[in-house]
Amino acid sequence: MGAAAIDLLYWRNVKQSGAVFSSVLLLLFSLTQFSVVSVGAYLALAALSATISFRIYKSVLQAVQKTDEGHPFKAYLEMEIALSQDQISKYADKILLYTNTCMKELRRLFLVQDLIDSLKFAVLMWLLTYVGALFNGLTLLILVVVSMFTMPVVYEKHQAQIDQYVGLIRTQVNSVVGKIQAKIPGTKRKEE
């Protein structure tokens, strides 16, 4: 994650983080009420209304003041926005690497290369059926966004206490997993 994203999530610049956080939440809440097509169309209409109004305002201002400043968006119209072949290749390589890694991991889990990992995955999928019954995907996305903007700050302020409790939980979970592994034949994990 880049430094700019970390600064946003840790609220280093409160105005910028607040603007991004509220914009994303507004977009997600809009999507709960309207279709993606409607939200996209309304956003495009709002942007178009703003740019047309600004263009007309500048044209009237130029006519009244009898100046010739030209098109108000000239700098943006002349700006290069095309992706280079290198950029496309770099992103395609990253996507390919991620896709291949995911496929290998899913193959490993579904074909039970390691029984314990496959059982953990099965428990996770079983828990996700309950999460899916309680929340739809958009609600989960809203919860993820809220968590992304609140958890880092909470952790930063209460790091010692959180680390202590996480350590206790991790010890308990490892103890239970160890006991389960000891009782299931053929599940002894290799020492890493």
From TrEMBL:
This protein's record includes keyword Transmembrane helix: yes
A cellular component annotation (GO) from this entry: postsynaptic density
Keywords recorded for this protein, A-Z: Endoplasmic reticulum, Membrane, Transmembrane, Transmembrane helix
Transmembrane segments: 20-48, 134-155
Compartments (UniProt record): Endoplasmic reticulum membrane
InterPro entries: Reticulon (IPR003388), RTN1-4 (IPR046964)
Any single biological process term in GO: endoplasmic reticulum tubular network formation
UniProt keyword Transport present: no
Membrane topology summary: Multi-pass membrane protein
Taxonomic superkingdom: Eukaryota
Record domain Reticulon: where: 5-192
Protein's name in the database: Reticulon
Organism (species): Oryzias sinensis (Chinese medaka)
